[in-house]
Amino acid sequence: MLSKKTKYGLKALTFIARSEDDMPVQVGKIAKSEQIPQKFLEGILLTLRKAGILGSKKGKHGGYYLRSEPSEIKMTDVMRVLEGPIAMVPCVSLNYYEKCDDCPDETLCSVHRLMVEVRDSTLNVFRNTTLADLSSVD
Amino acid sequence: MLSKKTKYGLKALTFIARSEDDMPVQVGKIAKSEQIPQKFLEGILLTLRKAGILGSKKGKHGGYYLRSEPSEIKMTDVMRVLEGPIAMVPCVSLNYYEKCDDCPDETLCSVHRLMVEVRDSTLNVFRNTTLADLSSVD
DNA sequence: TATTAATCCTATCAATTTAGTAGGGATTAC
DNA sequence: GTAATCCCTACTAAATTGATAGGATTAATA
Predict the structure, then answer these.
(1) Interatomic separation, CA of residue B30 and C1' of nucleotide C10, rounded (Å)
(2) Which of A106, B14, B98, B121 is buried most deeply by CB count within 10 Å?
(3) Where does the source fall among the domains of life (chains A, B) (predicted)?
(4) Which pLDDT score is estimated for B101?
(5) Which CATH architecture has domain B4-66?
C-alpha cells in the first residue's frame, strides 16, 4: 500500500506545481484544498525541503516552492524521498542493497528473480514520469 | 516492502515445483531447506491451499503439491493471494476498487495517474511470469 | 488397533510502522 | 511589535507483521 505520507506529498507537490505564479504556497492553503491534516502535511513538506525538492520561505507570506521546473522533477526522486527504496526487497535495491541472510545464491532465488523484474518495470515508470506529467490538466 | 509471508510463500512454491517426483512435499522439509519458521510456513501453505493453488494430503506421508503445472501458475494469482491487491491504492485496483473519499475527479488526481501506470507495469510482469519461470535453473 | 507423522485450526503476543496530535520556537513582513 | 508562517521534538493510538503455542484431525503402517 502507498502510505498516506506519499499520497499527501504527491498531492501537495502537484498543488504547488499547478499554482501558476511563483509565489510560495502556504501549508494551510494546501491542507485545506486537498483535505490533508495540516500538522501532518507540515512534516511531509519539511522532508521534501530537506531532500532538496522544495524550497521554503519563513515568516509572513512565506511558504513552499519548487526548486526546479516540474518537468525536471522525476518521480524516482520524489518516491525515494517519500516512500523509501523502490525495490520491494533489499537484495534487489540499487541504492540500498543488502544481501539476504539466507539465500546462498541470488541467481537461483525465485524471489530475487521476480523482484528484479518488478523493480525494473516500476523504475521505468518513475524515470519517465515527472511532476509536470502529474500536474498537467490534459 | 514485500512481506515475509509472500517471500516465504514464493520460496515454498518454488521448492515444491523443483521437487521433480509428484509426491507431496512436507512443510517440515521446506521449512528446513529454506530456513523458514515451520509454524509460520504452515499457515502460509494453508492459505495457498484454500486459494486453490496448492493441494494437500493429510496424515503420514502427506504434504502439499501443486494443483496445476508450474507453467500454468501465474504470478498475478500467487501475488494476490499472498500479498493482496496489486494496486498500491484502492482507487486504481481492478479487483478491489474503492473510490477515495476526497478526490472529486480521478482523472485530475495526480496520485491516481501515477499509480495507474505503476499498476499496469507491475501487472504486466506478473501476467507474464509463471512459477515455471521462477523455478527454472537457467 | 496403537503409534506416528502429517495437515489443520485458533488464539495469543511483541515489535514495528503508520497516521496523526500537541505544543511551542524561530523567522519575517508589515 | 504583532501576526503569520515555517520549523522542530515528543507523544500516542491503532493497525500490521512475524511470529509462537497448543492442540484437533486425519491417514499410513507395524
Answers:
(1) 23
(2) B14
(3) Bacteria
(4) 84
(5) Orthogonal Bundle (1.10)
